[in-house]
Amino acid sequence: MVTFIIRRLIGTVFLLIVVSIITFAIFFLIPRLAGQTTYQLAAQYVGRNPTRQAILQVEKQLGLADPLYLQYGRFLKAIVFGAHYRAGPEVTYCPPPCFGYSFRSQLPVWPQMVSDIPVTLSLAIGASVLWLIGGVSIGVLSALRRGTLFDRFSMGIALAGVSLPIFFTGLIALELFSYKWQIFPNVTYVSFTTNPLLWARNLVLPWIVLAFLYAALYARLTRAGMLETMSEDYIRTARAKGLPERKVIVKHGLRAALTPIVTIFGMDLGLLLGGAIITEVTFSLHGLGLFTVEAVQNQDLPEILGVTMLAAFFIVVANLVVDIFYALLDPRVRY
Amino acid sequence: MPGALLEVENLRIHFPTQDGLVKAVDGVSFSLERGRTLGIVGESGSGKSVTSFGIMGLHQGSQAQISGHIRLDGEDLVAASPARVRELRGDKMAMIFQDPLSSLHPYYTVGNQIIEGYRVHHPEATKQQARQRAIDMLDRVGIPQSAVRIDDYPHTFSGGMRQRVMIAMALCNDPGLLIADEPTTALDVTVQAQILDLISDLQAEFGSAVIMITHDLGVVAELSDDILVMYAGRIVEYGAAADIFARPGHPYTWGLLASMPRMDRERLTRLVPIPGTPPSLIRVPPGCPFHPRCRYAHLNGGRSETEVPELRETEDTGHLVACHLTAAERAKQWALLSAGQVPENVRDTVPQGGGEA
């Protein structure tokens, strides 16, 4: 098991390097292949209405004309060790992980992203707890009561949940619960450490809206998984042993049905941590999702680069956690 | 038969489906005493497995309609509450299945699965006692290094070893009745004999009654005291194994025997398959259900097509056969067949009946 984890860790580091190469290529190689000159690239880094001299200075400063491997080396070095930027006579130090300075605020990208992480984290974790509990339990009940009114009703709701986009359900929820009935009047982020109660109360609406989509998905997945495992031969064996039905369902059925759910859950959570874009925009929560949207709208290259790397990092780490979890859950995967 | 461990009386198990009522088991009666083995033989879909699942109460929760009586030690399992049947299941009666890989849970060690089955019926046993019991059982069924292997997962065992684990699991509560549902079908030929030997050894040791379900007459010939031949959910022949092998009375049994290779005869005759396919259990042919595939049905002057034959004692051995053929005709035909000759007046081509598209 330990060697398995070590092997996976090495693989993860390798994967992160590949991710950084691809990200680098997207931002610095592809524009060049598309015919953009380094001068034009540099022009993006200078403010509005730049002088030719300023652009040339930036081009030199950032080394945009250097060979690509040198640039990639600098890019990687900045992320791991930080970087020194020379602006005129003074030298500024950008601490690691350094993705450069934002065009808009002229501040290092990383601290800005870090300040947005708690919002996205709160949103993702709260919603995932809701959808896991809701989705899995509804899925199990549906499978066990297959064909009953409960099954049809919950699967109908689940279909709606999967089909309705968040900007629709979110706006309806906001209109009803926030404006009309004033049950959750403020959907603004309050830090958990400041006031846990207010933190939860303000996030309930986005949690429910986000969880609704995923719960619907998970209910359908769990139902299908349970129906499949409950018809397995080993379930018959468990019954033949005289185990109580509850134990047959939970220990033998659910255990096997949940394993693939864990995989999907890890990936979904990893993806969400990179920014629940639509939910954050709908509820105006300033997390990584909204950060991304703003970065893209402003064509703020360092910000886009930073958030891309961060999102990729979350997914890669989620992948690692899922792999280790899977090996713990399924003895056949080990070794 | 008073004192029998298991008495099945007029058992019917029907499944309502969208296409109609499936009469999987239709009026089956037999009994079994401690220490004896009953072989249930028949083609796929003849109702063998459904009967055994019915005895184990494994149809609960499905749509099955069950009537008749199943008495285990005098207690009627059809009338008993599901909770009571669950108590008996795994304790007084146990079952092993066809495919030992899919029958074991892949996520739990074999020890875990045996201990679980032991503790559910022995709540007073400590974990240590249950574990020791599991190790002893694995030892008994011939798993080497059982104290180490107990913590291994099923996928690390070979097919034969897995079936041994299943047997250990089934016998850990010392059940009075063991049902083996085609226990060797999924195994290598070389392993099959070992498993059958193991079952009969353990039967002698534990004194349990065994129901051996199979489509392989060779298996029952080796192990069974009694044989029950099933066709389309009904019994067509039932009696002592020696009687049935010496003087089989039903053309279906003849067909099964003729389609089985035999080592004790010279290879004079070819293996003869039974023509046609088993009938649909929704529209069972009227009269004798076997008549569309029977090569002798025309000798009964139309009774085979219209009148359901009852189980009657044969004149020679006294075992039960459900067939309209007269004793003389039956004796004559079997004499010819067993001598390896072509029977007289048989139909060559048989109308394809019952085979459901």
Write a structural description:
- The complex is a heterodimer of chains A (335) and B (357).
- In chain A, strand 1 (83-87) and strand 2 (90-94) form a beta hairpin.
- Chain A has 335 residues and is an all-alpha fold.
- Helix content of chain A is 74%, strand content 3%.
- Chain A has two domains: 2-94; 109-329, MetI-like (MetI-like fold).
- Chain A starts with a helix and ends in a 6-residue tail after the last helix.
- The model of chain A has no long low-confidence stretch (mean pLDDT 89).
- The longest helix of chain A has 36 residues, at 109-144.
- Chain A has 13 helices and two strands.
- In chain B, helix 4 packs across helix 5, helix 5 (127-140) packs across helix 7 and helix 7 runs parallel beside helix 8.
- Chain B has helices at 48-56, 82-88, 100-103, 110-121, 127-140, 146-149, 159-171, 189-206, 217-223, 241-246, 251-258, 303-306, 327-338, and strands at 6-17, 20-32, 37-41, 65-72, 75-76, 93-96, 177-181, 209-214, 226-231, 234-240, 312-313, 320-321.
- The longest helix of chain B is centred in the middle third of the chain and has 18 residues, at 189-206.
- Chain B contains 13 helices and twelve strands.
- In chain B, strand 4 and strand 5 (75-76) form a beta hairpin.
- Helix content of chain B is 33%, strand content 20%.
- Chain B has two domains: 6-229, Rossmann fold (3-Layer(aba) Sandwich), CATH 3.40.50.300; 251-338, no CATH class.
- In chain B, the strands form two sheets. Chain B has an eight-stranded mixed beta sheet, with helices on both faces. In chain B, strands 2-1-4-5 form a four-stranded antiparallel beta sheet, with helices on one face.
- In chain B, 47% of the residues are buried.
- Chain B is an alpha/beta fold.
- Classes of the chains: A mainly alpha (335), B alpha/beta (357).
- The A-B interface holds A 232-234, 236-245, 247, 251-252, 255-256, 259, 329-332 and B 56, 58, 61, 86-91, 94-95, 97, 99, 102-107, 113, 116-117, 120-121, 153, 155, 166, 169-170.
